[in-house]
Write a structure and sequence with these properties.
This protein has 515 residues and is an alpha/beta fold. The chain contains 20 helices and 22 strands. Helix 1 runs antiparallel to helix 13, helix 11 crosses helix 13 and helix 14 crosses helix 17.
């Protein structure tokens, strides 16, 4: 682009942002409709429309959906599903202070789910008891152990096929691993690295499901499995790292054990850390980020929450890679009710975007109660949206299903309905669990200053179908907006917001959003 064209483009963009900021003062998602434009799309297919976005400066996602770091929303199952669908899950820090290992295990579970090459497969020695091997398989949830000697030279493979019909009790005690494994001389293996295409050809040709990789000395350097190859094909939009593993993030606090927690999560190869506190524009956050950068250098870090231009600039100056925007809009948050502080979420997103420009991605955290609000959040400043209550009660959320008696008004019959718990991370119970203060009396608990609530939500199916519907609706919105990709849609709205955004009266809001 010529210098003059760049200046004109930049000027139009700045003018659009000024217009947008004036439009959204005091407003949130239900205060606007978007005016339909001439559509250029033949199909509204999420598989063919580019929905790419940035979660943070160095993490690109194929879908702009992130599951919230809430202890009733995101643990390993949810984070795995989110990454498989092209988004990202942030493992919560809802574990008791000092209890770091459970969160680390959740991250490791996601990172070990899928690979291109498993660089560190589970191993065992040939002289180990078969009972020990079976226990490792059961504990780690794997069906294959690579058998290596003390020098890590490949000796064989022990798979579930090798131990089929072996009782874990008396029978397993009679055997060693060497007696049941498939020895190296009967294995198909490869010396050195190879591409996925070459690995697939070799495995098809030799009719094997496991392909160990060794170096010239015969030492194990990796393992390729047919299951992982199939995952790569079946999930083309999945969020992956350079080794083909699923991306996963984890939350830490800004006081207490946050540096120790961060250190263990970095060792577990977490892809991004989120320093998450209720008020990110604070001296507490400043001290935390300065200490974090001093110890961990350029580790990818997102911080929040903020809701003003000053708050966004404050975090940008401290060197964050992404900013969470939202003070009090979430369904499980009571900050605005209890303190009267906050900024309407649409206004907050536009102000923060104008403050930091396009360099630092923004995560729109909270206030999204329908799929259409995702569209407004993305075109008015957000790069991704963070969702909690949208996934509440799904199969992948943690927690037990409880059955409650519900009266059906039509028939006056009482039926048992399954529920799960959803709670804000600033609720009394979440604070109690995280700080290990179960024995405190009511006065002490009141002193904690809770700004969240706990509710029961109906149990339902998988979050996968929810994400699928969201992406279909987002693609429909791109079509209505006269664009061919998410980035183009954002650019069109931000350059000429008056052409798109229609402020709603009370009656038009009822017509649009009350059903």
């Amino acid at each position: 682009m010529a210098p003059r064209a760049r200046r004109q483009n930049g000027s139009a963009s700045r003018r659009g942002w000024r217009q947008l900021e004036a439009l959204v003062q005091g407003c949130t998602f239900d205060d606007f409709l978007l005016a339909p434009q001439f559509s250029m799309l033949d199909r509204r297919d999420p598989a063919s429309i580019d929905l790419s976005c940035r979660f943070s400066e160095h993490i690109v996602l194929r879908r702009p959906i992130v599951s919230a770091n809430m202890d009733t929303v995101t643990r390993a199952p949810m984070a795995t599903l989110q990454a498989e669908e092209g988004g990202l899950g942030i493992i919560d820090r809802g574990f008791r202070t000092g209890d770091i290992e459970p969160q680390v295990r959740e991250v490791q579970a996601v990172k070990r789910t899928q690979h291109l090459v498993i660089a560190d497969p589970w191993t065992i020695g040939p002289e180990a008891a078969l009972a020990e091997a079976l226990a490792v398989m059961d504990r780690r949830g794997v069906g294959t152990l690579v058998v290596v000697d003390a020098a890590r030279r490949l000796v064989g493979l022990l798979t579930q096929r090798d131990v089929r019909f072996i009782d874990q009790g008396r029978q397993a005690a009679r055997f060693t691993v060497a007696q049941r494994m498939t020895p190296r001389e009967r294995l198909v293996l490869h010396q050195g690295r190879l591409s996925m295409a070459a690995a697939e050809r070799l495995m098809v040709e030799r009719k094997v499901k496991k392909l160990p990789l060794v170096n010239r000395a015969g030492r194990l350097i990796g393992l390729i499995t047919a299951k992982d190859l199939l995952h790569q094909k079946r999930l083309p939009f999945a969020s992956r790292d350079g080794q083909g593993r699923l991306l996963v993030g984890a939350a830490i606090g800004a006081t207490g054990d946050y540096l120790e927690r961060a250190a263990e999560l970095v060792k577990a190869e977490v892809d991004v850390l989120v320093i998450d506190i209720a008020h990110g524009h604070s001296v507490v956050m400043q001290k935390a980020l300065e200490a974090f950068r001093a110890r961990f250098g350029d580790v990818e870090v997102v911080a929040g929450n903020v809701a003003t231009a000053d708050g966004a600039r404050f975090l940008a100056r401290l060197g964050v890679n992404g900013i969470k925007v939202g003070i009090g809009p979430g369904g499980g948050c009571t900050t605005r009710l209890t303190t009267s502080f906050g900024v309407p979420q649409l206004q907050a997103l536009v102000e923060c975007r104008r403050a930091v420009g396009d360099r630092i991605p923004l995560i729109a955290d909270g206030g999204i109660r329908r799929d259409g609000a995702i569209v407004l959040a993305l075109v008015c400043g957000g790069d991704t949206v963070m969702l909690g209550s949208a996934f509440a009660g799904t199969q992948e959320t943690p927690g037990d299903v409880i059955h409650k008696s519900v009266l059906l008004p039509e028939s006056q019959k009482v039926v048992k309905v399954p529920f799960k718990v959803l709670r804000g991370m600033a609720s009394i119970q979440a604070i109690k669990d995280r700080l290990d203060v179960e024995d405190d009396d009511e006065v002490d608990l009141e002193a904690l200053g809770a700004e969240g609530m706990e509710v029961s939500v109906p149990a339902r199916g998988s979050a996968r179908s929810i994400i699928g519907d969201m992406m279909k609706h987002l693609c429909s919105a791109i079509s209505y907006g006269g664009a061919s990709s998410l980035d183009e849609f954002k650019e069109r709205v931000r350059r000429d917001p008056n052409r798109y955004l229609i402020p709603l009266s009370a009656s038009s809001r009822r017509e649009s959003y009350e059903r």
